[in-house]
Amino acid sequence: MREKTNVTFLVNVEVLNTGTELLLGSVTNSHLAYFGQQLFPLGLRIGRQSTVPDGSAIRGALLDSFSRCDILLVTGGLGPTTDDVTREIAAELLGFRLVIDEAVVRAIRERLARRNIPVRERMLRQAMVPEGATVLPNAHGTAPGLYIPPVLTPSLSTPHLFLLPRPPRELKPMFERHVRPLLRRIRGDLPNREYRNYHIVGLGESAVEELIGMELSLRGDIEVGYCARPNEVDFRLIAPRAVIEEIEPRVLAALGRHFVSTRGDLIEEVVVNRLTELQKTLALAESCTGGMLANRITNVPGASLVLLEGFVTYSNDAKIRSVGVPEDLIATYGAVSEPVARAMAEGAAAKTGADFGIGITGIAGPSGGTPEKPTGTVFVALTERDVQTECRKEIFPTDRETFKQLASQLALDMLRLRIFAEEEAAPHHALARTS
Length: 435
What we know:
By secondary structure, the chain is α/β, with parallel strands linked by helices. Helix content is 39%, strand content 24%. It contains 15 helices and 18 strands. It has a 6-stranded mixed β-sheet with strand order 3-2-4-9-8-7, with helices on both faces. A 5-stranded antiparallel β-sheet has the order 1-11-12-10-13. Strands 15-14-16-17-18 form a 5-stranded mixed β-sheet, with helices on both faces. A hairpin with an 8-residue loop joins strand 7 and strand 8. The relative contact order is 0.08.
């Protein structure tokens, strides 16, 4: 996944995560995503994120961030053990004395008593607070957070500094109850900007830029960004709401049938939700995708109202036995062929009574290809009751996992376009946004 953007920050916010386990990969760092989601509604944006191990590296990282940012969110290093030194290093750099906060001591003792855990003297390190800091109570742990307002001396200028616990179960409630109100006051009357994400299937990011992105990026009042994945792109606009409402019709017209949703919905969510509204059902016969299409559909809540049955007909015998593909069809055209894909879709729908049937057959590789049908060839067929079956052939010369993703994506997109076909005369994008 790649991120490209043109960004201007009114308030420079940085995140500093501390913890050796984050850098060893033994713990997934989820803080950045959480902070990003929480800050944007406040009109704040993260300009930089850093991760350093426990210990002395925190000192250099803090000094580095002090020189750049207006708000610094630091996670980790507030616990009772010898590797928890964020609080001590911050106090030393700021020239603040650490003092015992008796309210924190009482909170620690009461929490441990409720859980029948003996109080060890080392645990009370967590009650050491830099003079002048605001304690942020921790309702889910023993280490409080700390807020230290900016400090300006001849040798040092610091941002609004937040020291927060690392565990998400402690950090998130603390942020929402104590940090967010402080940030609202800090940000003052900065103008709010709207974030709108256009989920697109079947176009690359360069094509999206050519269609509409370059034009918008030249305006100066809109931030344009792209996040690309195989066969799909998230096209991001950030601007005042009035500006986005003004240009959105042009965006949707340029994207056309490739536009899926602005709500962040995955294509399978749009498909399942629309089939549910239409009270239509679906059956699948998958070969090369090995059930990935069924997996994506059943990841959507409510899919049981839509998906009647999925067949993984990986072998020729399974195609014949499970969904009734004629044996002579495979003998004549091969298992990877348009006639077999059509027979798979039609057989799945007929056997289950579903309104729609999808058949997928292909060569995932890395071997098995021929000059006529190279590795990566896939046939996807879509049938609908009383409607002629359609079939598409594509070649996705990539690794097996990406091939399966692309093939299932193609099937979902064919179905999406079919079920929204009745809205083609009117802008189907409006309905997709609310699905």
